Amino acid sequence: MSTIPESPQEDLTLCSSRGPIPNGFDSAIELFPAASYQYVVCRVGFKLDLEQQAYVYRDREQALRIVQRNQQPTQQMLQSLPPHREYIERWLASTTSN
């Protein structure tokens, strides 16, 4: 990494323990977006050390159970919503009657 300028080298070092993410950079306006860093990291054979985030993978099964448990109530709620146009018409009628 000695030929990489200091700022991108710091970003790549940051990415050594987790993949690059948009919120992982100091500035809101970066020269390259997180996806570009991810591409470079993968293309140069950079090996991520995800050991620091092992808890994420241990909690995966629990997360899947929670998502599955929430799917049925979510579908029920979505089915109880009126169609888009009907909702707008009801809303418009309620605002004009006042």
Properties at a glance:
mainly alpha; 98 residues; 2 domains
Describe this structure in words.
This protein is mainly α and 98 residues long. It has 2 domains: 6-51, no CATH class; 59-93, no CATH class. It has 5 helices and no strands. The longest helix has 21 residues, at 60-80. It starts with 5 loop residues before the first helix and ends with a helix. The mean pLDDT is 75.
- The CA-CA distance between the termini, in Å, is 68 Å
> What is the H/E order?
HHHHH
Say what oligomer this is: single chain
Shape: elongated
From the alpha carbons, calculate the radius of gyration and give it in angstroms.
Answer: 23 Å
Tally of extended strands? 0
Compute the number of helices.
5
Unreliably modeled segments: none
| Class derived from helix and strand content | mainly alpha
Tally of distinct domains: 2
As a percent range, the share of helical residues equals: 55-70%
Q: Percent of residues in beta strands?
A: under 5%
What is the mean pLDDT?
75
Major sheet attributes: none
List the helices and strands and how they pair.
Elements: H1 6-14, H2 34-43, H3 54-58, H4 60-80, H5 84-96
Give a brief description.
The chain is an all-alpha fold and 98 residues long. It has helices at 6-14, 34-43, 54-58, 60-80, 84-96. It is built from five helices and no strands.
